[in-house]
Design goal:
- The chain has helices spanning about 5-25, 45-50, 60-70, 85-95, 110-115, 135-145, 155-175; strands at about 50-55, 75-80, 95-100, 125-130, 150.
- It is about 45% helix and about 15% strand.
- The longest helix has 18 residues, at about 5-25.
- It contains seven helices and five strands; from the N terminus they run ααβαβαβαβαβα.
- Strand 4, helix 6 (about 135-145) and strand 5 form a beta-alpha-beta unit.
- The protein is an alpha/beta fold.
Length: about 180
Amino acid sequence: MAGFRYGTSRRLVEQIFDFAERCYDKEEPVFAVTLCVTAKTRPWEEASMGKHVLIIEDELNIIEAIRFLLSREGWTVDTHSNGTDAAQVIRDLKPDLVMLDVMLPGKSGFDILEELRSHDDTADLPVLMLTARGQSRDREMAEKAGVSRFMTKPFSNSEVLTAVRDLLYVHQQKA
């Protein structure tokens, strides 16, 4: 079965089990199958397994979409929607990664990021900044404040997953 992708292999196994269930009531065995499945994880997937992500975002639809996506991948996800106390919430929850919106009620994502970088316990925390405005000025401000990665909305599921995995992997390699 070399060369099969996970999805293809999984569908094949499901079809085999469906067939086996239909044949279960027969008097004699219909067939025998031996499966050998090896699950290999990539280094960046291993680095992110079981990690805690905090989403600081005020748009409910974005929160729910990202929460669903990351939870499905095995991450623990918490959310917060107010910029005023976001830095304290981050310090209290101690996430492995923060996804931080630029425009929040109470305090901007740039100000929150600067506050995080000024404290020893959050200075190296991976921060993925999200913005609806993808202007170069915003990117420059984020880089100046110490962002780990910058992403413009709208983004694809694969972009979010890749960014989160990459940031967690790089952070783990530094530790």
